[in-house]
C-alpha cells in the first residue's frame, strides 16, 4: 500500500513528500509513531504540501510552482522559456536555440560571482576533454583580469591600472603586445612638422648634416640605436622622419633654383661666345 502510494505520486509531489519526510527524520519525530500514524502524518504533510507549494500543473508552470511538464524552471516568471529563466521584468525576448539560462530585466542587470578578496573568481567553458578549456578569471588580490582560450594559461590580461597585455602578463603600457599586429591603418595622434616651412625656420645646411652623420653615425634629431635600446616610438619616429622629408624637400628646392640659375648663366655664356 505504501509502495503504491509513492509510485502513483507525480514526480514533483514525490519530491515534496521526500523533502518533508527528511525534515521529520532530521528532527527524529517519526521514530516515536506507529506505521499507521506515520502514514496519516505523511498524508497531512502531503496536503500541506499542496497548499504550501501550490498545485502541480502538468501542462505549465505557475508563479508558486515554477516547474511545468517542459522541465523549465522560472524565477520571477510563470512562463519560463529556457531551462532556467530568471526574470525581473518581462522584455518579450526570444531565446537562442542553444540557450539554457536566461536572465531578463527591464532595467539595469548584473550577474555577480562573489569570492573572498584573497581568492580568484572564475567564469569558464568546458568540454568532454577539459573542465576549463577557456574562460576568464578575476584575481582579487592582484586586481587583474585574465582571459584564456584553447587551454592556454594566459592569452590576455587587464592589469589593476587598466593596462592591457596580449601574450604579456605584466603590461607596462596601455597596450603591450608580445607578437605581431596587422591592420589596414594605424592612427597616431602626434603634432606635425609644418613649422619647417615657416620663413623663420633655421634649415640645417647639408654640410652640417654631413658633419653630424660623420661624428654621431646617425641623422640629427634622432636617437642612436644604443639610446633607443631596440624600442621605436611610432609617433615620435614618424614625426622626426616627416621633419627630415620636409627639410630634404627644401634642400631639393634650393638645389633646383641654383641649377636653373646655372643653366641660364650657361646659356648666356654660350650665346656670348657666338
* Proportion in helices: 25-40%
Tell me the number of helical segments per DSSP (H or I, 4 or more residues long).
Answer: 6
Q: Give the C-alpha Rg.
A: 40 Å
Name the beta content range: 5-15%
The H/E string reads: HHHEEEEEEEEEHHH
Profile the largest sheet: 6 strands, mixed
State the low-pLDDT regions, or none.
1-24, 50-59
Distance between the termini: 140 Å
Brief synopsis:
With 274 residues, the chain is of the alpha/beta class. It contains six helices and nine strands. It has helices spanning 2-7, 11-27, 35-53, 206-216, 225-228, 234-273; strands at 73-75, 84-88, 101-105, 120-125, 134-139, 144-148, 156-158, 164-166, 175-177.
Can you tag this structure with a few keywords?
single chain, 274 residues, alpha/beta, six-stranded mixed beta sheet, three-stranded parallel beta sheet, 6 helices, 35% helix, elongated, disordered N terminus
Description of the molecule:
The longest helix is centred in the C-terminal third of the chain and has 40 residues, at 234-273. The strands form 2 sheets. Strands 4-5-6-7-8-9 form a 6-stranded mixed beta sheet, with no helix packed on it. Strands 1-2-3 form a 3-stranded parallel beta sheet, with no helix packed on it. Among the domains are: 2-53; 120-177; 194-273, no CATH class. The termini are far apart. With 274 residues, the chain is of the alpha/beta class. The chain contains 6 helices and 9 strands, in the order H-H-H-E-E-E-E-E-E-E-E-E-H-H-H. 4% of the residues are buried.
Amino acid at each position: 500500500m505504501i509502495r503504491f502510494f509513492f509510485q502513483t505520486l507525480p514526480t514533483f509531489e514525490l519530491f515534496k513528500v521526500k523533502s518533508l519526510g527528511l525534515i521529520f527524520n532530521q528532527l527524529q519525530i517519526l521514530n516515536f509513531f506507529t506505521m499507521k500514524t506515520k502514514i496519516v502524518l505523511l498524508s497531512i504533510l502531503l496536503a500541506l504540501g499542496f497548499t504550501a507549494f501550490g498545485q502541480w500543473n502538468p501542462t505549465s508552470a505557475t508563479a508558486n510552482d515554477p516547474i511545468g511538464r517542459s522541465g523549465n524552471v522560472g524565477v520571477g516568471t510563470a512562463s519560463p522559456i529556457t531551462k532556467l529563466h530568471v526574470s525581473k521584468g518581462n522584455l518579450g525576448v526570444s531565446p537562442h536555440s542553444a540557450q539554457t539560462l536566461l536572465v531578463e530585466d527591464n532595467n539595469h542587470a548584473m550577474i555577480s560571482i562573489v569570492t573572498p578578496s584573497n581568492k580568484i573568481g572564475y567564469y569558464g567553458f568546458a568540454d568532454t576533454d577539459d573542465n576549463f578549456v577557456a574562460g576568464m578569471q578575476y584575481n582579487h588580490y592582484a586586481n587583474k583580469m585574465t582571459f584564456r582560450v584553447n587551454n592556454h594559461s594566459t592569452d590576455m590580461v587587464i592589469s589593476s591600472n587598466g593596462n592591457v597585455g596580449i601574450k604579456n602578463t605584466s603590461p607596462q603600457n596601455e597596450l603591450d603586445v608580445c607578437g605581431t599586429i596587422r591592420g589596414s591603418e594605424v592612427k597616431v595622434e602626434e603634432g606635425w612638422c609644418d613649422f619647417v616651412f615657416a620663413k623663420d625656420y633655421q634649415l640645417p645646411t647639408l654640410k652640417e648634416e654631413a658633419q653630424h652623420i660623420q661624428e654621431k653615425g646617425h641623422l640629427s634629431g634622432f636617437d642612436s640605436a644604443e639610446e633607443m635600446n631596440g624600442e621605436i616610438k611610432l609617433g615620435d619616429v614618424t614625426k622626426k622622419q616627416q621633419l627630415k622629408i620636409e627639410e630634404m624637400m627644401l634642400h631639393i628646392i634650393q638645389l633646383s633654383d641654383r641649377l636653373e640659375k646655372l643653366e641660364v648663366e650657361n646659356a648666356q655664356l654660350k650665346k656670348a661666345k657666338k
